[in-house]
Amino acid sequence: MRTKILLVALAVSLFAGCGSAGNNHKLRIAFVPMHQFDVYWKTVHAGALKAERERGVEVIWQGPVTANARADEIDIVDNMVGTLPSALVVGPVDFKALTGPVKNAHNAKIPVIIIDSPLAGDDYQGYVGTDNYAGGVSAGEHLAKLLGGHGRVAILRGVEGTASTDAREKGFLDAIAKYPDIKVVSQNIRGGENAETARAAAENILAPLRKPDGTYAIDGVFASMESLSYGMMLALDNAKLCGKVKFVGFDFSDQLVRGLESGKIDALVTQNPVELGYRSVIAAIDSAQGKPVKKVDYIPTVIVTTANLHNPDVWERVNPDLSGVK
Fold first, then answer.
1. Rounded to whole angstroms, what are the CA distances from 151 to 35, 174, 182, 220, 278?
2. Where are the alpha helices (DSSP H) in 108-250?
3. Distance CA 53, CA 30 (A)
4. What are the CA-CA distances from residue 205 to residues 74, 129, 212 (Å)?
5. Which is higher by pLDDT, 185 or 161?
């Protein structure tokens, strides 16, 4: 009897899950970010909630609680697939690690939208993200302009295997390579999982560049994501190099915006995470309803400096409303 009850319960659960994409049921969009704790992903969540309110769907948000937690993200995606949502949105922490779980979703006829960082394979309906390579190029071009086309620069890299930061870093280095009088003096140090590990890594970049007279043989730096940018700012500040070394960061947070306003940062290459979250959920809804979606939907970056920071559209981008985000 117990076996029969379990089988009936399972059948009801599967029926409810499969029916959730129908016209008479509220769509359930499972959303798995890379992680849940930083400003960037909280802002993506705000955009997802905006789409939830507008379209009357349910967004189920769950991601790893620490950065670069590949195994945790794989488990979460597998568990989400097991609930048979109407569609799935995934921000893969690794270019290859999530291909298996996404393939499982594809085999279960669950539409998948990839957000923020590309994924190997083709078992998804669309990708919504930033053109990270182009963003990296714009960072390199801007730093070269700040330096007048000559000087010594360094880059603080993200975790290896994360396609978004890999692309930004390649774009930056390709742009800098066009300037023969700019020398890259450090390009292999990675900043780790958070601002503290990034600060330590930035200090490791600076230490061998310190000259006997206490000055540093460095003219410009680039950091390829939010936590790296904050860690780099802390390291430059500690070395009393803010305002002396030109600094272009990527992404934004309250601390980074204050750093820009105070002159500790020269420019921030900013994404539009609210729009990323919003468009990814809209694409997931359209896919669940059998509508076509763009295979690739790029949202452009904007370089923010003190000159344009208080323009209404820019200010709104770097000061998103997070009141509905837990």
1. 37, 16, 5, 7, 41
2. 132-146, 163-176, 195-206, 226-238
3. 15
4. 33, 30, 16
5. 185
Residue 99: exposure state from Cβ atoms within 10 A (0-12, 13-18, ≥19) = middle
311 in any annotated domain: no
User: For residue 15, what pLDDT is reported?
Assistant: 35
Measured CA to CA, the distance from residue 159 to residue 76 in angstroms comes to 21
pLDDT confidence bin for 242, thresholds 50/70/90: very high
Tell me, yes or no, whether 22 lies in a domain: yes
Are residues 159 and 120 part of one domain? no
Q: How many angstroms separate the CA atoms of 41 and 226, rounded? A: 11
Residue 42, Cα to own-chain centre: how many angstroms?
Answer: 11
Question: Cβ atoms within 10 A of the Cβ of 7, count?
Answer: 10
Q: Are 35 and 99 in a shared domain?
A: yes
The mean pLDDT value for 190-209 works out to: 95
Prediction pTM value: 0.84
User: Are residues 136 and 121 part of one domain?
Assistant: no
Q: By the 8 A CB rule, do 299 and 128 touch?
A: yes
Q: Do both 137 and 264 map to the same domain?
A: yes
180 lies in which domain range?
132-270
| Cβ atoms of residues 237 and 137 within 8 Å | no
DSSP state of 251: S
Answer whether residue 314 is part of any domain.
no
Short-list 83, 67, 102, 315, CA closest to 193:
67
Pair (106, 71) in one structural domain: yes
Is residue 321 included in any domain, yes or no? no
Q: Report the chain's C-alpha Rg in angstroms.
A: 22
* Same domain? 162 vs 248: yes
The domain that contains 38 carries what CATH number?
Answer: 3.40.50.2300
